Amino acid sequence: MSAARPGVAGATRTCPHCKATILESSAVCPACRGHLRFDAPATDAAQRFVPLKVEGTLNAPDDGAFEYTMVVVIRNERGEEVGRQVVGVGAVFPGEARSFSVAVEAVPASPGKRRVKH
Fold this sequence. Notes:
6 strands, mainly beta, two-stranded antiparallel sheet, single chain
């Protein structure tokens, strides 16, 4: 979890439903989509934007299968790794395909929250 204190931009907590690490300010868990706060303003969803989205498909060749590992790495402005997570593994056999989508969802931090460096 984040070293940020509660109430600071970037502070995290654990989802009570799926135990994923999420932003403290989240009203809905991005992992399990469970509702966390019912007092959240309706404008939260209207302010959400997606600054990055990447999609792709893997197709197995007709002459054999292959295994894959999907890894997400987050780096800061200096190129230092601040997070790494294996999100899935598996195999693709002839005639099969797997599609992948990675998206970064963002919402402006509340004006009263301080900046925290990670």
